[in-house]
Input
Amino acid sequence: MADGISKTSSGDASGASFLASEGKTEHSALDTVFRRVIAEPSSLEAKRGLESLAKSLSEDHVIEYTDRLTDEELNIFLSITKPMTAPLIRTVVDGVIFGIKHLYIDEGPANAMAERIKNEYDRGKYSSGCESPIALKRAILKDLKEICPDKHLDIRYVSKLDDTYSLFSRLEMPSSEKLQEIDEEYIEYHREGNWGISNVRIFDENNVGYIKFDKFPPAHFEEMKGAIDAAMRTVAGTKALIIDLRDHEGGDPKTVALVASYLFDKPLPDHLCKFYERYSGRESVTDINPIEHPTRFGGSKPIICITSEKTFSAGEELTYDLQALGRATIIGEKTKGGANPTRPFLIEGTQFEVMIPHIRAISPYTSTNWEGVGVEPDIIAPYEDSLNIAKKKAIELSSTL
Output
C-alpha cells in the first residue's frame, strides 16, 4: 500500500521485469506506454496514449498494474489517468473540512484544521500542483498536520470502491453488527498473519516466556481468541514473561483487554480504559476478566514489555496500561504516540477517505493517555538490544520470587 493509497493488492515496484515474467499482455502494453511517459515527460502523444489505453482496460487490470509502481510513479500515472479537476478538488476540500470539523476528537484543533484548509483553498493553493489524487492528498494532509500532528490522521485514495465504503460516508458509524460483518471479509488476512502473533516460545534455560504481538485484530473473532489462549497457555507456567511489541501496528482496544486478562488474577479496581466519542457523546469502557481464563500467566510473576519507536496505537495501549498499573517493566524505545481510535470517512462523489481520530482513550489511572508523547520506557534500549536486556531483566526479577 503506497503513500496512503488503499488498494486491492500490494507488491513491489519491479516494473516491466515483473510484468514480463508474469506474461500479462495487458500489463506489458500498459508498462511500455507508461515508461514512454516517464522517458518523455513533455510528450502529449505519450500521455494521451496512456490515458486511452488505461480507459480501454478493466479497472482490475489497471489497479493490479499500479500496485507495482513506486509512490512517485503512481503519482505520475494518476495525474494522467485520474486527473484532478477543479470541481473534484472543491468536493474533496469540502469533504475534508466537513469530516474533520464534525468528527475529530478535539473541537479546537478540528475547527483550526478546517479553517486552515478553507483558507488554503481560497488562496488557490490546491488548484496548482495538485494534478493527481496523491498530490492533492499530500498537500491537504501537510496543512492538516501543521495544525494538528496527530499520527492517526490520514487521507487515502481508494483505487476501487465497493459497497462497504459507502457505509462510512455518514457521520454516524455503522452498527456494531455491520462492522463485524465487514471484519469477516478480512478473516483470511488475519488468519494468514496468525492473528497478529508472530512468535511464541520459552527460553528453556531460564524458563522465561516470550510472545511477540504485531497487531491486535478485532476481538470478536473466535479463532483469534483461540490463538491468544493457546499462546498464553504456552507461557502460563514460566517464571517471567516478555511481551514483544516492537513492531506492533495497532488494533482493537477490546483485544488489548483480552490479552491483559491473562496477566492478572482478579478484576481491576476500575476499568482498564475509558473511551469518549465527541460526535455522538457516547462513552464506552474495556475491562479485564481473569476468571474467564483459568490457565493464565497470572498477576504475580514479572512481565517485561519491549517497545520501539514503531510501537503504535493499541500496542501502545497495552504498554501504557500495564505501566500505569505497575504490572510491567517497559524496556526499549519511546513509542510512536498515537492514542485515539480512528474511523474512515468517505467523501461522497470521490475516491478519497479521511482517516479521522474520533474517540479519545482515557486511562482511569492517569486521567490522560499517550497521544503525542508516546510511552516512556523504564529502561531505554535500542531495538536490536532490547530483547537481550529484557531477558536479563526477566531473570533478575524472577530470581527474587
Notes: The CA atoms of residues 286 and 337 lie 20 Å apart. The longest strand covers residues 197-203. Residues 1-5, 7-23 have pLDDT under 50 and may be disordered.
